[in-house]
Amino acid sequence: VTVLEAVNAFEKVTGQKLNYELGPRRPGDVVAIYANKSKAERLLGWQPKRNIEDIMKTAWAWEVARTKGVTA
């Protein structure tokens, strides 16, 4: 999942448009990170249960519940 895919999933789940700008990489930014779940599937029988939208939904629900009644 890219940062932009995470932003898009958050916007879709919350119905809120985020204010962001795309810009060049900063010094020290990682160019790319890759992960492959096939070894965990093969050795452990592990399968992911959630996709990025599911993760954003639960994270957002937690944040809303955590800040309920809190004013800035």
- Gross morphology: flat
The overall average pLDDT, rounded, is: 91
The helix count comes to 3
* Strand tally: 0
Structural class given helices, strands, pairing?
mainly alpha
Proportion in β-strands: under 5%
Q: What string, H for helix and E for strand, traces the elements in order? A: HHH
Second-tier CATH architecture: Alpha-Beta Complex
**CA distance, first residue to last residue:** 32 Å
Q: The CATH topology, please?
A: UDP-galactose 4-epimerase, domain 1
Q: Which regions are unreliable across 5 or more consecutive residues at pLDDT < 50?
A: none
The Cα radius of gyration reads: 16 Å
Main sheet characteristics? none
Relative helix content: 40-55%
Tag the structure with descriptive keywords:
72 residues, mainly alpha, UDP-galactose 4-epimerase, domain 1, 3 helices, 49% helix, 0% strand
Task: Describe this entry's structure for a reader.
- The protein is mainly alpha-helical and 72 residues long.
- The chain has a single domain (3-67), classed as UDP-galactose 4-epimerase, domain 1, CATH 3.90.25.
- It is built from three helices and no strands.
- The protein has helices at 3-14, 38-44, 52-67.
- α1 (3-14) packs across α3.
- The longest helix is centred in the C-terminal third of the chain and has 16 residues, at 52-67.
- The relative contact order is 0.16.
